[in-house]
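User: Predict the complex.
Assistant: Input components as received:
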Amino acid sequence: MRNYFKSALLFAAIVFATQYLFIAIVPDIIFAIAKHRSGKPLNTVIQAPRTDAKLRRVVLPNPDFVYNACFYDVSKNDLLITGLFSDSTQYSSLAFYGDNVQPYYVMNNLQGFKRKYSVRLSSVGRENGCIRTPSKQGAILMRVLVTDSAQYENAKQLQSIFKVRLLPQNN
Amino acid sequence: MKKFLFLFIAIVVGLAVGVYRIANIESSKSFFANGSWTGSQSLPLGKDNLLTAQVSAFALFALPSEEAIYLFARRDEQHEKLTGENDYVITGNINQIKAYYWSITAYGKDLYLIPNQDNRFSFNNSNLQTDSAGNFSITVSSKKQSGNWLPSPADARFNLVMRIYKGKKDFVAHLNEVPLPSIKRLTK
């Protein structure tokens, strides 16, 4: 009876530890899958076509948005991210995610940011205007709202203007 | 061999419990419910591992709450799961959601957009047909309908997601009690 109780207790402890660890690492697993599915090298801009039912890389895509994405790695270099927001009639934003796929910084065109932006992304603390990433790897997502064909044309322009360049870390 | 089997079964059960806890967003303490809609105002997520895993799984690359709120509906107002075997009507008023942009999108069970000939996947506050008072109704059906028609899969379960971007502070703070569009089953 005592052995049976000990075994049951051990079984429950392993179940508890496994589910706890699994829940803790799920975001990292999902990030690794998303990075792999992007099919592009790190620090490269991915210009996504207009979202429709053929898009199978990311769950729950928003069909009203046009996206640029970049999976980054700042372990050896900083990044310089440049681009243009649309005017306030068309929401656009730049969101930064860590390797746990959680956002840590968002800029958008409704917050008073200048339309033309240029930001440095680094894993070490730097001067003003630099965004510090909590992890060496992560993702940047540019979103542009598209509600009609004119907005779509504008979004395509914003997509092509968006650039990510490597900068030396000791600069 | 017995010890290995014991360990293997315990790990498999642990993984199954983990998957169940992540999938069971409707009973999560971090999510509020309002009618058929379930959502969270807690993004960014801090150290809540379960909520972080749930959001990663069901709303990958979601924005923080001050930017956007995501509400999920897996069931109608009668608490029955949404399925393409039935038709539904989503009713509301365009002015009841106080935000820069909001939309309602249909997704298949696999959480991807539902293929359809019209390439219609969502309605938003710019393209909804409303009456002069702002009232709207969206018919969710696998068969083409007049007016605001949101295609659903023929015989499979599906989900609805409402996105609310740059919602007014008062509105977002009371999302668990403000009137939101209702989802009623039409046929069986």
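The longest strand of chain A covers residues 65-73.
Let me know if you want any component modeled separately.
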